[in-house]
Amino acid sequence: MFKLTLDKNIVLIGAVVTGVIIAGVLIFTGNNAGDFNFLGVFGESNEKIAQKAVDYINDNGLAGSQASLVSASEESGIVKIKIKIGTNEFDSYVTKDGKYLFPQAIEISGADETDDSSGQPANGQSQDSGEKNFSVTESDHIRGDVNAQITLVEFSDFECPFCQKLFPTIEEILTDYEGDVRLVYKHFPLDGHPNARKAAEASECASEQGKFWEYHDKLFENMEGGYSLEKFKQWAKDLKLNATEFNSCLDTGKFAQKVQDDFLEGADKGVTGTPATFVNGQLVSGAQSYESFKQIIDSLLGI
């Protein structure tokens, strides 16, 4: 792992960069012949490095949407990039030599020992790197065969573009492994996403009327257009929910604590960013490929 000396402390760059904890996927852009990478940009302007990073994200990281560069600046030798996807803006980082790209991050405040989102140590290591145990009950949001031997517990954020990217991958897994794999969805709204918590609450209000998964799909399908209370309520109508009950539920924050409980559970399991998917307790971080999940699942099934 690439390391950076910051304020006389050695920290993992994958965890903390000048008051920021990396929440998304670290992408090693590669240096083999034929690989796309930023190598050779060292010494170029921050803006040029930033634009190449955005081009890389568009070419390799997003499906059905485009990122655009808003601004670029330098912080302790790292290029900070603000990108816009749809109506949402996100902070990303890239090393000046072009080797490492961090697509998403969360700001942390003050003390450098823990981050605000999860309480994890600043070195980015989970308190327990082993497999995690989850108690799955009928009150959980389960997609697939409830008795399946493989359980995916996904901590996700409805305003996270990488969660949206993972969405069709999970759907493909559930289709191909029908009867063998089930998905359990849990909320992990990041502080940098202003509408993520209310979107999570809206999905719970839909769940109260028996349509969690329909509303879940609706949110991800419409993420690029941006979120608002009016849109949340309109989508409830589109799904034929009782509008009066849904609106009251959303306006009063009826399920705010349930969303927070999911978040705290994720933090306790070592989650610091989204998407974070546990495959029978084994953490798979980020919007990994179908093949990455397939390898783990096949191994567990003895295929």
Layout of secondary structure:
Layout lengths: L2 E4 L2 E4 L7 E3 L4 E2 L17 H15 L6 E9 L2 E8 L2 E8 L4 E3 L2 E3 L33 E4 L5 E7 L4 H16 L4 E7 L8 H13 L3 H10 L7 H10 L4 H9 L4 H13 L7 E4 L2 E4 L4 H12 L2
Parallel strand pairs: 11-12
Antiparallel strand pairs: 1-2, 3-9, 4-8, 5-6, 6-7, 7-8, 10-12, 11-13, 13-14
Helix pairs in contact: 3-4, 3-5, 3-6, 5-6
Features:
disordered N terminus; alpha+beta; five-stranded antiparallel sheet; globular; 32% helix; Glutaredoxin; 303 residues; single chain; five-stranded mixed sheet
Shape: globular
| Terminal Cα span | 32 Å
The main sheet comes to: 5 strands, antiparallel
Q: Ranges with pLDDT <50 over ≥5 residues?
A: 1-40, 105-129
Q: What is the tally of helical segments? A: 8
Q: By CATH's scheme, which homologous superfamily of the largest domain applies?
A: Glutaredoxin
- What average pLDDT do the residues reach? 78
CATH topology-level name of the largest domain: Glutaredoxin
Radius of gyration: 20 Å
Please, could you describe this protein's structure?
The protein has 303 residues and is an alpha+beta fold. It folds into two domains: 3-107, no CATH class; 141-301, Glutaredoxin, CATH 3.40.30.10. 32% of the residues lie in helices and 23% in strands. It is built from eight helices and 14 strands. The chain has helices at residues 46-60, 161-176, 196-208, 212-221, 229-238, 243-251, 256-268, 290-301, and strands at 3-6, 9-12, 20-22, 27-28, 67-75, 78-85, 88-95, 100-102, 105-107, 141-144, 150-156, 181-187, 276-279, 282-285. The strands form four sheets. It has a five-stranded antiparallel sheet, covered by helices on one side. Strands 10-12-11-13-14 form a five-stranded mixed sheet. Strands 1-2 form a two-stranded antiparallel sheet. Strand 7 (88-95) and strand 8 form a beta hairpin. Helix 3 (196-208) runs parallel beside helix 5, helix 3 (196-208) crosses helix 6 (243-251) and helix 5 runs antiparallel to helix 6 (243-251). The protein is globular. The relative contact order is 0.14. Residues 1-40 and 105-129 have low confidence and may be disordered.
